[in-house]
Amino acid sequence: MPAPTFDRRFSTPADCAACRQAIRQGSRSFYLASLLLPVAIREPAYAVYAFCRMADDRIDTENGGLRAVAEMRALLDRVYAGAPGESTVERAFADVVAAFAIPRALPDALLEGLAWDAEARRYATLPDLRAYAMRVAGSVGAMMTLVMDRRLPAVLARACDLGVAMQLTNICRDIGEDARAGRLYLPLDMLRRHGIDPGRFLADPVCTPALRAVVADLLAEAERLYDRSLGGIAALPASTRIGISAARLLYREIGRGVSAGIDPVARRSVVATPRKLALLLESVGQTYPPEAPSAWPALDEARGMIHAVVRSAPPLRSPSMPPWWRVEARALRMVELLHSFQRRPREERLPFGEAQRSKP
After folding, report:
1. pTM (2 decimals)?
2. Are the CB atoms for 130 and 265 separated by under 8 Å?
3. Alpha-helix residue ranges (DSSP H) falling in 57-125
4. Regions of the chain where pLDDT drops below 50
5. Quick check: helix, strand or coil at residue 7?
6. What is d(CA 40, CA 281) in angstroms, rounded to the nearest whole number?
7. Which domains does the chain possess?
8. Rounded CA gap, 207 and 64, in Å?
């Protein structure tokens, strides 16, 4: 079967250009990796990212809080009703939802995670933190997997692994920035196990050997999930593997910069341009493990989203024409097409002008 196409019903090329600009400004690493995706995938990928970026900006950066969460849910109401509003991003995301049959549970999960941000929620354990990361990043990985025409549970599970790994990397990179804003994402039991009082750390955030031990524990979990994600990348269409592999390598390198001694309280780990280019080359020659994507069970926190995809209807597609050398099969397919054409109401079969004239 052919992959679903990204036919615009609501958006325009200008809308796509605006989405591309959003990703270019919001994440240089992801934008660089996206350039390695095929054009047919790149445009819907920009729309998915732009929607996520808009939600994060409205709820977090612009301090919209729970009011903004309600507004974004109303936006999803319009999108899933097939009646998007005037927003560039809203129109582009509505096209992606329609073309790739993205169940609402996925963007709803993202908004739930962002609502936890608005509540300044803290996380008692690593599974609690994974539940948050699954919502704000695993959901994005799942949506991107649908855009790349993969709906198998095992492949979705590996995409969720990659999303959570990236979010754990972001948390370790942004410790100081978050603390100065009064936010703490590090698991509370992990902090206490290493002798760090969460309240005192927020009052006076400094990088200590104990904090480095906490970061090492989180990055070890991220590394485990980065390793598991490779089997899922191998199951993606060949034309998309390099781009997703590049994103994986670039984010992983951010975490390795923290592990190598960067003070995550004082500054953020960044990947220098020469190193980025080297990683892009590495993604071209990436080798994949022999294990199937199903070699590991899905994270418990991913099961709800995976079930939502399994329960949803796949994209509507037209049956493909058999290869030219299968003469009999092609003839049968042509008969099927003609039969379906004849079953349509007469006014739908007429050329547009004649159909208009035939109406009373």
Report:
1. 0.84
2. no
3. 65-80, 88-100, 105-118
4. 319-322, 324, 336-337, 340-341, 343-360
5. coil
6. 22
7. 13-318 (1.10.600.10), 320-360 (no CATH)
8. 31
Structural tokens at position 193: 């196990």
Buried b / exposed e over 158-187, threshold 16 CB at 10 Å, is bbbbbbbbbbbbbbbbbbbebbeeebbbbb
Residue 143: per-residue pLDDT = 97
Q: DSSP per residue over 142-208, as a string?
A: HHHHHHTT---HHHHHHHHHHHHHHHHHHHHHTHHHHHHTT---S-HHHHHHTT--HHHHHHS----
Q: Are 250 and 29 in contact (CB under 8 A)?
A: yes
Residue 275 buriedness (CB in 10 A; 0-12 / 13-18 / 19+): middle
Residue 219 near residue 258 (C-beta atoms within 8 A):
yes
- Long-range contacts at 268-276 (CB < 8 A, ≥ 24 apart): 268/173, 268/174, 268/176, 268/177, 269/173, 271/29, 276/29, 276/32, 276/250
Dihedrals φ, ψ of 181, to 5°?
-95, 5
Residue 143: which residues within 8 A CB-CB, separation 6 or more?
Answer: 48, 96, 102, 106, 107
